[in-house]
Amino acid sequence: MEIKYNYSLKNHNTFGVQVNCKTFVRLNSQQEASNYVQNQLDKTLPYLLIGEGSNLLFTKNFEGTIIQMQNKGFELIDETNKNVWIKAAAGEIWDDFVVWSVEKNYAGAENLSKIPGTMGAAPIQNIGAYGVELAEIFNGLEAIEIETGELRRFYLRELQFGYRDSIFKQKFKNKYIITAVILKLNKFPFFKIEYGNIKAELETLTYENLNIGVIRQAIINIRSRKLPDPSELGNAGSFFKNPFIDVKKHNDLKKLFPDLVSYDLENDKYKLAAGWLIDKAGLKGYSKGKVAVHKDQALIIVNMGDAGGQEILDFSEEIRNKVYEIFGVMFELEVNVI
Ligand SMILES: Cc1cc2nc3c(=O)[nH]c(=O)nc-3n(C[C@H](O)[C@H](O)[C@H](O)COP(=O)(O)OP(=O)(O)OC[C@H]3O[C@@H](n4cnc5c(N)ncnc54)[C@H](O)[C@@H]3O)c2cc1C
After folding, report:
1. In the chain, at which end, N or C, are there fewer CB atoms within 10 A of the end residue's CB?
2. CA-nearest residue, atom 27 of ligand 1
3. Catalytic site residues?
């Protein structure tokens, strides 16, 4: 265990916002996490779990304890002819796990290549990209209850996964320290290449037989062209969630905007592309002070220098309100505002 006091979080959030916390604790094992919350954590002050801070926006100093799991390791815990079950420590970097699984030829995670962050945070918002969500390969997780220090196991259905959502973003928010995640991968891959421009990207690559390593490479190529690198330009990926609307609202918007980008979810709901709405509102590349809508990716808000968290949040409100005025659609935030 490692404890620091009055510690800067600038290098612990991908927006690069300068804030301090009162206490910063790194925990190296499940046992350490259990002991810490039972004997040392001051529960009268606020506390917050953190991974790599790639989905967080700090708007002020954090007057409490930031807890980071640093445990490491992947372990094959079960196997059949078709599948493997891997237990991965929460402190592992998500993409290191994808690299490991692709090397072993265990399929299922390759479309989620290069998503920043840790294993422990992956279930929180059911990370997703390129037609795949964590839920599809998730089996269960282990977590320490902060109130009692007890170890609990949660399985797929208990997580109540939704679009960028799980029970750990709702009822169990900040109640558990996730210490390990169990993933079920496939020995016989089922390639998912229909989404977006994966197929077009594959055509630019040289390979004999399609495999998960090639798919990973295609995804990396697309992502590195499309997304700003937080080490160069502070950001937390998509700032807003893609909104869901009903059929009537969809038809009304389609009349006004025939080029509206939407996806029929076949349950009387449509999903809109939030980036398209921001772009259509004329806000792609829009900037104020040190904050901007990314010039190529309208769904990403970037910190162009030393913007404060509140400044970024205020800017995002302006975007939200402008989009609402034009389309009558209010965005929900994907980023966790602290
Ligand atoms: C450039 C960029 C691209 C991105 N692309 C995608 C994408 O394609 N798809 C996608 O889904 N997301 C994407 N994201 C968002 C981000 O990568 C994910 O949300 C990721 O899972 C966050 O991991 P983290 O470790 O940084 O979590 P943090 O940002 O540190 O924390 C996120 C949440 O998880 C909680 N948490 C963290 N660790 C634990 C733990 N051990 N136990 C309990 N709670 C915990 C935190 O309290 C917080 O509520 C992107 C972000 C960036 C910067």
Report:
1. N
2. 51
3. 164, 238, 334
